[in-house]
Amino acid sequence: MRITIGEFISLDGVVQAPGHPDEDGDGGFAHGGWSHPFFDPEVMGPALADWSKGTEAMLYGRRTWQVMAAAWPGRAGDPFADHMNSVAKYVVSGTLGENDVTAWNNSSLIPGDQAVDRIKKLRETEGGDLTVLGSASLSRTLLAEGLVDELRLMIMPVILGGGKSIYPVDGVLRSFELASTVTSGTGVHVCTYRPKASAATAA
Known about the structure:
alpha/beta
């Protein structure tokens, strides 16, 4: 399976609480729901549909899974919601137990201390995309471990001044190449990046 990460992200690299004012106020973050003024259904809607089309399973951190589990089961009947509700979902958490992930069907737990090894094994299996949405800490770990095959960003024309990011801060240089891009009427750049093979790998 390919591991893909999809994010609504600000110009300063923040992915925290794009969808709702009460989504995630950690660290005093006061801009919850910041993505809404920039959503362009004509461009971003098809992009999201394309992201979901190849998704065989979802991979979440605890907080993002809890937000999603509270919202999506009640939206049955919409094609995107039906897809989200039907696919397999893996939840990485060091605090939840197996009985805590039953609120959203087809969810299963990956204990936090086993996450990297378990995700590596999932990546080695045949199948479609294993898609990560949100989940800043998990995404940062996957990028740091070199486990991301595609990075899908909806880069929004706003600076938030701080908040959670997906980017590692370990001083390691990681190169990506732009696979596709389209710009919405609201100034959002919908970009797909893939890791650039090193000279040694390319040879």
